[in-house]
Design brief:
alpha/beta, Beta-Lactamase, Alpha-Beta Plaits, 4 domains, eight-stranded mixed barrel, six-stranded mixed sheet, binds ligand C2E, binds calcium ion
């Protein structure tokens, strides 16, 4: 220290000596070593403070003047060169230096030190020494290293994890995520994902509502666990993922972001679905299996209750299938079952279910049915589909089936009852010669059977000339004479009794056969009109009933026109009776047809008037000539006083519109007299005559 002190006055020298002592105390207590050294090859120390011992493990006198060891030697071998360069560069350019490097402690340990210092110059500005301070920073270095190691370890976990790891903002953007996340979502790189996705809710989740669900769970629990969702991959593929995540908040409790993991569970989901599918489906046909029957039926019943529908439970059993199976082998049998299953699926709607109970037994649940009749169409389709030839292994097989049907809620209100009833109906179908279906309900079954039979037999009725017309006279109340006749169809099948039009006309309407029948009636009524004219020497009006379907579906106008031409009948003497119920449909088209018919010169009557629910206001728009009061108002005139008022009102209405009013179903003298009294124009009924075969009617006319 006294290297460069000059001779000073004693008082100042003392002061300085005091300061020197104070500095020495300070320096010797510093944690670290104050030094002064030469810039030689050994960094020869010419001064070191007491801190030398703890820093290097050597006593100051061991280091001073390289007595035992030089500082160059203490410096960690690998650091020596660069340390020297840094210090010399600073010193020769008169700069302060500051650096960290390692030294070897006397006990052999390598220690990190921090050194700072500056060059010292003499009066001639020659660099003479270095002065500085060296501190042990091993502890700090070690913790820094630990932190770096830890960071690196976590980074490595983050970077190399198989699971996707992310941080997202509450607004739905990615703050950070790992390569696995990008990979799971099908992006080429982290960069690719962060460039492409700016809105997790809409771009990641298939159901955008999922993000809101995620946030809601976060809000209430602070975390989500096993949150499963479907997400889009970059290429649009959909995968299943599961997420586990938590909120991260700052010390003030402010939400910073969500942090979580993503796992691709598509494969697991796929296997789960496979397992579920196998548990609920028949492996041969892919139809539902027995385990699903009760479940589906219950669902259908609930649905039917809510929507006022009925459910049909159809028990289907292939006829003589065991025979095929036993004689041809199971492979053929299986082939047939697969074909049948496919055909059944084609016959029903998506909302219906088909269950294979096992063997050759199936159950069909037909839902969304409004009425029993709807069932029969499907059943007929099924019978037809099943009985088509089945090709298996280049062999052709013909199979048929028997079906038993029960209906919910009519035939039972629980699964077991309904199945039992369908089953017993199926046995009835087997007994009735197979290849047919039977309804459990006796009466319905009866009615439907008859209907089916009528439809079947009607097919040949025209060709076999089984139809005939009867004629019922209409009496004018002014003249008391026959003023016309209504042609009424009769069906006399080659075997069995006469069949009423009330039984077969509705069936013919439904099947469309009415179009042929209607044409037949028109032609034959016109021919009869010609015979009547020839007999009487003057024409007599003949009325023909036209059913609603004829009105709507066929080209009625041109048919009538053609027939008028063909039969040479005077159209003024042909009357068409249209029931009020036809009016309910499609009024503008209806009115046009009426006008077109009217233009042909025929007269028009509204039949069964008073029973329809259409407003009477329409009447004035219709070019009609007659109202035929429904017989219901006439037949119980005696016991139903209210009918008196109705009859009077209808007659008044008809007359106000310039229409003739006809009463039908007149059976008694009382009715006749009463109707006469209130101004009815014409009458028809058993009181005068029943409908008669043409020959008898002609005889009646002659009298
Ligand atoms: P509708 O047009 O109202 O015919 C009158 C029905 O009442 C006829 O029955 C007739 O026999 C019956 N009748 C006549 N006088 C009396 C009576 O005093 N008392 C009672 N109780 N009944 C009487 P029918 O012939 O069985 O015809 C029934 C319905 O079938 C007809 O009712 C009509 O709607 C329809 N229909 C008949 N023939 C044809 C036809 O050729 N074509 C079409 N589309 N429908 C027809
Ligand atoms: Ca009629
Ligand atoms: Ca009528």
């Amino acid at each position: 220290m006294n290297l460069y002190t000059k001779t000073l006055p004693p008082n100042l020298t003392r002061l300085l000596q005091d300061r020197e002592r104070m500095l020495r105390t300070l320096i010797s207590n510093l944690k670290g070593m104050v030094y002064c050294c030469l810039l030689d090859a050994d960094w020869t120390m010419i001064y070191v403070s007491d801190g030398c011992l703890s820093l290097t493990g050597y006593k100051p006198e061991d280091l001073l003047f390289n007595h035992v060891i030089s500082y160059e030697n203490l410096t960690f071998a690998e650091d020596r060169e660069w340390v020297r360069k840094v210090i010399e560069d600073a010193a020769y350019s008169s700069r302060h230096y500051d650096l960290e490097y390692q030294i070897t402690h006397a006990n052999g340990e390598i220690r990190w030190v921090h050194e700072s210092g500056l060059p010292l110059f003499n009066e001639d500005q020659e660099l003479v020494a270095l002065e500085g301070f060296i501190q042990d920073i091993t502890q700090r270095k070690r913790s820094e290293q630990l932190a770096r190691d830890a960071e690196a370890r976590y980074r490595s976990i983050f970077e190399n994890a198989i699971e996707g790891i992310y941080q997202t903002s509450p607004a739905g953007q990615y703050l950070d995520f790992n390569p696995a996340l990008a990979r799971i979502y099908g992006y080429e790189s982290i960069q690719d994902l962060s460039n492409s996705v700016s809105d997790i809710q809409c771009q990641i989740y298939v159901d955008p509502g999922k993000r809101a669900e995620y946030m809601a769970i976060m809000e209430s629990r602070g975390q989500v666990q096993n949150f499963e969702a479907q997400v889009y991959k970059k290429n649009g593929d959909i995968i299943w993922i599961t997420e586990n995540a938590r909120e991260v908040r700052d010390s003030d409790g402010q939400l910073l972001f969500y942090e979580g993991t993503v796992e691709d569970i598509s494969e697991r989901k796929y296997y789960q679905e496979q397992i579920e599918y196998q548990a609920t489906h028949d492996s041969l046909t892919g139809l539902l299996n027995r385990t699903m029957l009760a479940d589906r039926l219950e669902q259908s019943m609930h649905f039917a209750d809510r929507h006022q529908h009925i459910v049909a439970i159809a028990f289907l059993d292939l006829d003589h299938f065991k025979l095929i199976n036993d004689s041809m082998g199971h492979q053929i049998g299986d082939g047939i079952l697969m074909i049948i299953a496919e055909r059944l699926s084609e016959c029903v709607r998506d909302s219906d279910s088909i269950v294979r109970l096992g063997g050759d037994e199936f159950v069909l649940l037909l839902t969304c049915l409004a009425k029993i009749e709807d069932i029969t169409h499907t059943m007929r389709r099924i019978l037809a589909a099943v009985s088509l030839p089945c090709m298996v292994d280049d062999l052709e097989f013909l199979v048929s089936c028997s079906i038993g049907i029960s209906v919910y809620p009519d035939d039972g209100r629980d699964v077991n009852t309904l199945l039992k009833h369908a089953d017993s109906a199926m046995y009835k179908a087997k007994q009735s010669g197979r290849n047919n279906f039977q309804l459990y309900t006796q009466e319905l079954n009866q009615a439907l059977t008859e209907r089916i039979e009528i439809e079947y037999r009607l097919r040949n009725a025209i060709d076999n000339e089984e139809f005939l017309l009867h004629f019922q006279p209409k009496i004018s109340l002014v003249t008391g004479k026959i003023c016309g006749a209504e042609a009424l169809i009769r069906w006399q099948p080659s075997e069995g009794p006469l069949i009423s039009p009330l039984s077969f006309i509705p069936v013919a309407e439904e099947t469309g056969q009415i179009e042929f029948i209607g044409r037949w009636v028109l032609i034959n009524a016109c021919r009869a009109a010609s015979q009547i004219k020839a007999l009487l020497g003057r024409p007599l009006s003949v009325a023909v009933n036209v059913s609603p379907r004829q009105f709507r579906h066929c080209d009625l106008v041109s048919t009538v026109e053609r027939i008028i031409l063909d039969t040479q009948v005077d159209p003024a003497y042909l009357e068409l009776e249209i029931t009020e119920s036809s009016l309910v449909h499609d009024t503008p088209a209806f009115i046009k047809t009426l006008h077109d018919l009217k233009a042909l010169g025929v007269t028009l009557a509204i039949d069964d008037f008073g029973t329809g629910y259409s407003s009477m206001a329409y009447l004035k728009d219709f070019p009609v000539d007659r109202l035929k009061i429904d017989m219901a108002f006439v037949s119980n005139l005696e016991n139903e006083p209210a009918n008196v008022a109705i009859l009077k009102a209808i007659i008044a209405l008809g007359h106000s519109l310039d229409l003739k009013v006809v009463a039908e179903g007149v059976e008694t003298a009382y009715q006749q007299a009463f109707l006469h009294g209130i101004g009815c124009d014409e009458m028809q009924g058993y009181y005068f005559s029943k409908p008669l075969p043409l020959a008898e009617f002609l005889k009646l006319l002659q009298n």
